[in-house]
Amino acid sequence: MRLRQAVAGYRAGMDAALLAAACDAGPGERVIEAGCGVGGALLAAAVRRPGTRFVGMERDSVAVELARGNAELNALQDRVEIVGGDVERGFRALDLPVFDAVMSNPPFFDDPAALRAPAPEKSVAWMADGGLGAWTAFCLKAVREGGSLTLIHRADRLADLLALLAPKAGSFRIRPIAPFADAPAKRVIVRAIKTGKAPLILLPPLVLHERDAPGHSAAAEAILRGDAALGWN
Predict the structure, then answer these.
(1) In 10 A of CB 125, how many CB atoms?
(2) Directed axis angle between helix 40-48 and helix 61-73, to 10°?
(3) What is the distance between the alpha carbons of residues 140 and 15, in angstroms, rounded to a whole number?
(4) 183-202 burial by CB neighbour count: b if 16+ within 10 A, else e?
């Protein structure tokens, strides 16, 4: 997959790759990504899931045009649609039918005091103006009953994320993402089912690096190269 991005500003990286690998939508299903940016996660998921249709929603007009161009660049325009929209306006403002699955990498901060001097062009991607609640509310409205929600976020916001999703979703599966086997997780990927009732399952962590070896761990490298998915078992 090739990806054109702005010279300055937020650039898709590890989180986008992991979110794409965590998408497990099946053939014929429809997936929406809330806040797709230039399409890093969205297009990677589409490459991984050739029988699935994707819609990416983004509020930044420059990113929307880049995402549309990236879909064409990767010959995915027949299965991937990019629409302009704002999470804070809610899902109904898009006037679209509900989806089988939703995926998102919400901005990691909703308190300006918690963010240390970001570059101005990155602040939109890092700062959730409506808070994490606006993002979870959008995702819950966007997916059908029995559909899946997959979100990647900071590990220290896990309790907030679960509390916001729990009134309308359950059957949580949580995959910690740790930099090393002996280090705390810095990211979590949460998968929930709308109206799901199964017990929460905490899965083994994905460890990104080994202390005594350069580069990524074998498991992480396989995921990043598209040779493996980030499964939910």
Answers:
(1) 19
(2) 30
(3) 21
(4) eebebbbbbbbbebeeeeee
21, 65, 68, 188, 221 from 224: Cα distances, Å = 8, 25, 23, 17, 5
Q: Which residue has the tokens 């790759």?
A: 17
Report pTM.
Answer: 0.89
How does pLDDT run across 213-230, given as a tens digit for each residue? 999 999 999 999 999 999
